[in-house]
Amino acid sequence: MKSKNQFTPLLLVLVLALGLWLSPKQAAAQSLEAYLLEAEKNNPGLQAAYARYQAASEQVNQVSLPNPELQAGFFLRPMERFMGTQTADTRLMQEFPWFGMLRTQKEEAYQMAQVAYFQYLEEKNQLLLQLRSNWQELMLLQGQQHLTKANLEYLKKYEDLALLQFSVGTSPTFTPAPSLSPLANQVNSSGSSPMSQMGGSNSASSSPTTMPASMPRTTMNAGISGMSSVLQIRLQVKELEARLQQLQSSSELLRIQFNQVLGRPMTTAIQLPSTWELPTLQLEKQDYLEKILQNHPMLSMYAAEKGALEQQGKMAKLEGKPMIGAGVNYMTFRPRLENGMPMGGENMVMPMVSLGLPIYRKKIAAKVKEVELLQAATAMKKQETENNLSLAWAAAFRDWEDSKRQLTLYSEQVDLIQQQIQLQETSFTTGNVSLQELLQTQQLLLEYQEKQLLAQYQGHQSLARLEALFSTTALN
To answer: Residue 54 falls within a domain, yes or no?
Structure first.
């Protein structure tokens, strides 16, 4: 009975430790926000997307008049003219597009720069979603490692008590307690979990066909059954140790991926908080949908693309207008001799005007039709994106509401099991409840706490998806 009383405080300490792990704290959210800011500054893919936006912005400054045209000709043998002997002919021409063409081109370039900017925003949202997802997976793996270590402590203490009872010749009538379900496989797909074969098997009680007459049959059976219980516990300990190694390996892979997203060496340490806050919503359900349809970068991108196509349509029509040119022709002369007297020789300046005639109208009509078709395609793509966003919003909220229900259910079940443990501890001290029954109940508590942990992970993942859909970043 003294050994049993020494084991009871360990159960209470582990329950309190697991309860603290699930308690809401603000430190985790602040630490994650710091990593998000670091990823925005250092991720190479995101920096490349922003450079593409800056390059598109420079196209606005590239809209200008056509380059002027300068023509110069020199006579190898001066040409005799009435005004004198012509030695050179220089012409300078400048073309001017139809009124409003330059303004339309600048507006089209600005709209295309906006398209690049909203593409950058979407890439940033997807990057931050990946970072949040990796963070929550790391937190889940850390919590599962805590639970696995706690389960190992239970089994090792159980092994000590079984050895103690075996040494004194009493049988604990051991039936292996149900083990934790392999919930880690829902995070990684590295294969079947070592925990998948732990629960539900009963230890075999050996009954020898012959025994010495001097040894009572009950004492012999108790010894064999007790040793079988010890071996079964050791088998479960080995399985839990293998599962712990698998969780650590999966965590290491996620840390490498997390560092790559941050744009830093993969061996850099990642500081995870010791507690994990509970997921909370910032807005009501319908408010999220309204904000998503108002602010999502892809919808804004299609709106900017529509504006750019409208300007392209205007330019296609303006290309059907004449192109006006203006310039000057400068001719140099030198005096010519006529009857021994110099005649003429004054240089001549002649203003010039040109007019481009867009007579090939089929080309202009085809450009206008092309823009109209592209506008229709953009409108349909925007409608498709709105439908997909609404579906993604509904799926994220379904997972959120499901995780909320599970958290409520598992919290109530954990409370009930803890009350049951308190009653069993009272009966355990008086000898009315066996150690096996107490540990089976405690093992059931650990199983529901891991389910509670997984439900919390699902809630965080659904919130991360909502945050990726909900973007309020404005164009600078």
So the answer is: no
